Amino acid sequence: MRHERWAPGRPKLIACPAGGGRAVTGGEHMNQAAPLLEVRDMSVAYGKVGAVVNARLSVNQGQIVTVIGPNGAGKTTLLAAIIGALPANGSARGAIQFAGEASDATDTSIERMVARGMTLVPERRELFGEMSVADNLLLGAFQRYRSGQRDHAQTMDEVFALFPRLRDRRTQLAGTLSGGERQMLAVGRALMAKPKLLMLDEPSLGLAPLIVREIFHIIVELKRRGVSILLVEQNARAALQTADYAYVLETGEITLKGPARDLATDSRVVESYLGLGGRVSS
Ligand code: ATP
Question: Has this prediction a pTM greater than 0.85?
Answer without folding.
Answer: yes
